[in-house]
Amino acid sequence: MRALSLTDHLFLLLESDNQPMHISGLCFFELPKNADANFVKKLVQQMATSDMPATAPFNQLLTYKAFWSRDDDFDINHHLTYHLLDDGSEETLMAYVSGQHSQILNRNHPLWECHVIDGLSPVTQDKPRRFAIYLKMHHAMADGVAAMRLFKRSLSVSPDAKFVWHFWSKNQQRHSKNPPKHRTIISLIKEQVGTIKPVAQEFIKRLKHPQYSNAISTFNTPPSILNQRISKSRLLITQSLEKQRFLSIAEHFQVSTNDVVLAVCAGALREYLSAQNCLPDTPLTAFVPISLRQDDSDLGNQLSFLLTNLATNETDAVTRLNTIRASIIDGKNRFSRMTQAQIINYSLISYGWAGINLATKLAPKKQGFNLIISNIPSDDTSHYLNGAKLTQIFPASVLLDGQALNITLANHQDKLDFGITACPITLPNIEKLPSLIKNQLLQYECLIDNTTQP
Predict the structure, then answer these.
(1) CA 195 to chain centre
(2) pLDDT of residue 145
(3) What is the rounded distance in angstroms from the CA atom of residue 166 to the CA atom of residue 48?
(4) Non-local CB neighbours of 359 within 8 Å, separated by 6+ positions
(5) Which of 238, 265, 306, 436 has its CA 20 to 30 A from that of 34?
(6) What is the pLDDT of residues 211-251, one digit of tens each?
(7) CA 51 to CA 165: how far, in whole Å?
(8) Which pTM does this prediction carry?
(9) Who's near 278: CB < 8 A, 6+ residues apart?
């Protein structure tokens, strides 16, 4: 048995019927040339009949709500689903995926599902046929970085490779090159005691310098329509934008690509809330996850969050971008002075009340942040599944009762694939958000054009 971490426990504690705590990915593949009509059916049959054993975390069963243990009766039929679309449209696909994303995982089995979706029409008539894989895993099993690694390590970098090593079954090559060392109870206690002084010092610094304009806290997050009770309904909206557009803006304004992503999302949220006559006078705040992984591991959760000022009260786009940049730098500088254990304990103290509030709903009108905006890194390598090329990865993440919107994107090849998860009952007209994001990106490009013209 392996004990759950505090983070794992938190994700399990937060789960309820209208608050599933799984992360997902909708992955699109283009069929190889000369693929026969039954390519996808044969692929699923190969998956279902494979004698490759499931390995951690995919064979891990929740035991006594405190441990992961191996499922000796693992049955792939509890996890693998083949679905043929009626009309091949993306609208039907997204309706199916949104419905699946609203369903809680069965805790009597390992906490993941794989849906292989056939019959999807090509983007245009001259493009290859496509299929999709919708994979969902409980957040207690893995964070976004680990999930991305688990999935991509099951694929091939060669379009000619026909052998499939399923993502739920590890081989020796896919094991971490730097596996975590076994930790004794004594070493863990020493580590925790060692965090007390540096964490206390960081809090003292914050108390001594309250004048920092970007030093926001979970106690001054404004109420907004994003922070209402949610229903079981989920709406997944996808949008793919060229990465180079974000890189050009970042280079011009001398900020990071992620700063531009946050600024574009902030501007879109400002427009959306203004259209609903619900824009708060004070800036929205976002939880921005950061990975604490220092190796190539693909298990569990190793993450913390930067509470970020989105400057949605600013009318000027450049001022908004610079404010976001300063807020991110402030958080990164603080974390750079701490070890991983210190960062986790600092975050537990800083944000702990917000997690308790979400779990207990003691103060439903008081939230510690307005939404989560997450950027999952990937690489530029092309990946294939039995010759089918992976073209897009759209993440779908968690919503919380009081947090009705989540924006997560995958940094995949030359695109940024946005996955917007929302409660459509709580947020009217939220389907317009992708076009607002695109408009904000265009606005920054126009600012560059105006400053470079003679």
Answers:
(1) 28
(2) 86
(3) 10
(4) 10, 13, 14
(5) 238
(6) 444 457 777 889 999 999 999 999 999 999 999 999 999 99
(7) 11
(8) 0.88
(9) 224, 225
| Average pLDDT rounded to a whole number, residues 23-51 | 93
Q: What is the spatial distance between Cα 425 and Cα 419, in angstroms, rounded to a whole number?
A: 18
d(CA 117, CA 306): 36
Residue 227 vs residues 220, 265, 357, 386: alpha-carbon distances, Å: 14, 17, 13, 43
Phi and psi, residue 136, nearest 5°: -130, 140
* Cα–chain center distance at 70: 26
Structure tokens given for 334: 């603080």
Residues labelled catalytic: 139
Question: Whose CA is closest to 166, among 45, 308, 335, 285?
Answer: 45
Residue with tokens 């007209």, as numbered in its chain:
429
Could you tell me if 105 and 111 are in contact, meaning their C-beta atoms sit under 8 angstroms apart? Answer: yes
Rounded Cα distance between 266 and 144, Å, is 22
**Mind listing the pLDDT tens digit for each residue in 104-147?**
999 999 999 999 999 999 888 888 899 999 999 999 998 888 88
Residue listed under structure tokens 């997944």: 236
Predicted pLDDT at 197:
62
